[in-house]
Specification:
Layout: H1 7-16, E1 21-27, H2 33-45, E2 51-54, H3 65-76, H4 81-92, E3 99-103, H5 105-111, H6 113-123, E4 127-130, H7 139-147, E5 151-156, H8 162-171, E6 176-179, H9 194-203, E7 210-213, H10 219-227, E8 232-235, H11 237-245, H12 250-266
Parallel strand pairs: 1-2, 1-8, 2-3, 3-4, 4-5, 5-6, 6-7, 7-8
Helix pairs in contact: 2-12, 6-7, 11-12
Length: about 270
Amino acid sequence: MSNKISYNELFNKKKINNEGVFIPFIVAGDPDYDTSLEIVKTLVNNGVDALEIGFPFSDPVADGKTVQDANFRALNGNMNIKKSMKFLEDIRKFTDIPIGLLLYYNLVYKYGIDEFYKKLSSIGVNGVLIADLPPEESDLVIESSKEYDINQIFIAAQSTTNERLKKLTKIASGFIYVVSVMGVTGARRNVENNTTTMIERLHNHTDTSLCVGFGISKPDHVKEVLEAGANGTIVGSAIINIIKDNLDDKNKMLDSIGTYVKQLKKATI
C-alpha cells in the first residue's frame, strides 16, 4: 500500500459524517508474530478506523497488568525492535488506514532518534506517541518527526496543568491522547465524570482532534466520550484480555475479537 490515509483526512471525514473514530491497540508480537498479524487483519477486516501498535518493552510503566503481560508474551516470543519494524511493514501490505505507535523513549533513543523516524517514514507510519517523554524534553523528537512528516502525539491527563496544556497543544499533531482516568491502562466499568471536563478544557486550547483512552471497554463508554466532545476512542486492554483468555484457541480468539470490535465500532456511528 503506497498511499496511506492521514489522521487529518480520517478525522475530517468522520466529522463531516458526524461519526467518531475507533482505534484499537495491540502489542506487536502478542502472543506471537503470526497470530499478532492475524489479529491486526481481523481488526482491519472488521472496520477499525486506525491502528495503535505497541512495541514490546521490558518496563512499560504507564501500563497496567494486562498490557504488561502482553509485552512480556511478545518479548518471550523473541520480538525485538527489528521484528517490530517488519511487523509494521507487513501491516502496510494490506491496509492504508493510519498507523500510530505507542512505545517508550528508551527504544527510540537506542535505535537513534533520526534513524527511527526515517525508518518509520519509509514504512508509512503516521504517528508516534512516546509514553514516557514529557513535552518539555521532546525537542529532538519533534525535530525528526517534522523532518520525516510523522505526527508526534502526546498524552494529556486530568492532572495536566493549563500551562502545560498550552505547550503540549502547540507541538502535538495528528491527535491528542486524552487519558480518561488517573492511573495506568486497563479496562474499567465506568468512564470517570471528569473526563468530560478534561475534553472541554482541551477544546479551549486546541482544534487538534482528541481521542480518549485508558479504561474504554464498552460500547456505552465509546458513546459517552464521543457525546462529551471527543473525536475518537482508543481501546486496548479489553482486546488484549480476549487474546489472553484464548491463547489455546486461535480461531475463537480471532472470532471473539471480530465480534467485540464490531460492537465498539457500531457505537461510533
